[in-house]
């Protein structure tokens, strides 16, 4: 483990391998570690072939895969209005996805997340995913499965992500923050 200029720890990749890796196949998830921003989210209904964007054309959200093996997903529609009623709050809930769990490789191009916290109880347990990585673009999709948003219908959902890079501006370099920074005390 190394530390950056702020004393925050980060991995060099030479430490103990996270769950899902083995000496024989190397760490299959190493290239997926980090922070990702959503680009698209679409779902295909297996019975009709209909394609929908359940979170609209411009979803917002993040995926983070930590060195520990924990993965977190939070993504939603970008046009969610402030709720004024219980019905509005229900619609907000329907326009988001959020879950976290422990992830491990399941062969090349596949992983399994053992989801222990989710926005919907139907997402708890094992979630199988396929993925393709092309530079800083990550495509993740499901096998045919039912999804809480679509009742009992079989669907295949696909989410495309882009890797987020560390901000080039450090908070201490921003004048208005420097007076409240713990390092300036």
Descriptive overview:
Helices cover 7% and strands 42% of the residues. A hairpin with a 4-residue loop joins strand 5 (60-65) and strand 6. The protein contains 2 helices and 12 strands. It has helices at 86-94, 175-178, and strands spanning 2-3, 9-10, 34-45, 51-52, 60-65, 70-76, 96-105, 110-118, 125-134, 137-141, 145-146, 154-163. It has a domain at 56-163: Beta Barrel (Lipocalin). The protein has 185 residues and is mainly β. It is globular, with a radius of gyration of 19 Å. The strands form 2 sheets. The protein has an 8-stranded antiparallel β-barrel.
Fill in the keyword field for this structure:
Lipocalin; mainly beta; 2 helices; disordered C terminus; 42% strand; globular
Output the number of helix runs.
2
Distance between the termini: 28 Å
Q: Give the averaged pLDDT, no decimals.
A: 81
Spatial sequence of strands, sheet with the most strands:
3-5-6-7-8-9-10-12
What is the third-level CATH name, the topology of one domain? Answer: Lipocalin
- One letter per element, helices H and strands E, the order comes to EEEEEEHEEEEEEH
> How big is the Rg?
19 Å
Biggest β-sheet strands, sense, barrel:
8 strands, antiparallel, barrel
Q: Please state the overall shape, judged from the principal axes of the Cα atoms.
A: globular
Q: What is the CATH first-level class name of one domain? A: Mainly Beta
Unreliable spans: 1-25, 174-185
Share of helical residues: under 10%
Strand content: 35-45%
The class by helix and strand makeup works out as: mainly beta
Q: Please state the second-level CATH architecture of one domain.
A: Beta Barrel
How many strands appear in the DSSP assignment? Answer: 12
């Amino acid at each position: 483990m190394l530390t950056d200029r702020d004393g925050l720890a980060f991995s060099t990749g030479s430490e103990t391998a996270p769950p899902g890796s083995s000496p024989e196949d190397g760490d299959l998830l190493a290239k997926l570690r980090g922070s990702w921003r959503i680009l698209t989210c679409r779902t295909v209904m297996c019975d009709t072939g209909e394609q929908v964007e359940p979170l609209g054309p411009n979803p917002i959200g993040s995926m983070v895969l930590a060195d520990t093996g924990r993965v977190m997903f939070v993504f939603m529609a970008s046009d969610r209005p402030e709720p004024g009623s219980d019905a509005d709050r229900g619609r907000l809930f329907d326009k988001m996805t959020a879950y976290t769990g422990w992830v491990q490789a399941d062969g090349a191009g596949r992983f399994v997340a053992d989801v222990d916290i989710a926005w919907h109880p139907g997402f708890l347990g094992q979630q199988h995913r396929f993925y393709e990585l092309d530079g800083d673009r990550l495509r993740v999709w499901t096998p045919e499965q039912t999804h809480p948003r679509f009742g009992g219908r079989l669907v295949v959902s696909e989410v495309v992500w882009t890797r987020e890079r560390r901000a080039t501006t450090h908070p201490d370099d921003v004048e208005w923050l420097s007076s409240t920074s713990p390092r300036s005390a």
